[in-house]
Design a protein that fits this description.
Blueprint: E1 2-4, E2 8-20, E3 28-41, E4 46-54, E5 63-74, E6 77-86, E7 96-109, E8 112-123, E9 126-139, E10 143-152, E11 157-162, E12 165-167
Antiparallel strand pairs: 1-2, 2-3, 3-4, 4-5, 5-6, 6-7, 7-8, 8-9, 9-10, 10-11, 10-12
Amino acid sequence: GRYRAENSDVRLVLRDTVSNNFIASSNVQSSLNAAYVDYRNLQAKVDWRVGRQSAVGGSLFGLFDGVSMTMPVASKYKFSAMVGAPANTLVSAPAQRLTGVMLEGDGLFERWGGNLSLVDQTTEGISDRRAVGVEARYFGESMSMFTQMDYDLNFRALNALTLPGSGQG
């Protein structure tokens, strides 16, 4: 659903999937991927989301239930923050919390962009993930590339490194 006014845009988003196996001994699997209200102030360009949503990017992985905010901080930069609880159906841990921040830049150099992020996740007040992440993106006429690095501060080790890209001959 969507309502657009002169100075704001409000969206109601709901996405769910259901897998049904018709064998009597099997179960039905459902996955609520999104259920949030998105409010965007068109003049200030500030965006607020409340509910189940995908993380804002960077080292912030997966779905979470909570609040996120994105706002411009300069002509080529925007700041994002989120707070909530991971929405992980595989793990049912009590009192999980996560917070994350990200500074993103686009058009920093010709065809380049990227971000720097920091995430802190706790279970019952004990840190179970604290990470810093860096992304770099390049989009050219015949090639595109995206790289992401995630470093876990608790374990002092590289958590993830990706470098997908495509080229056109």
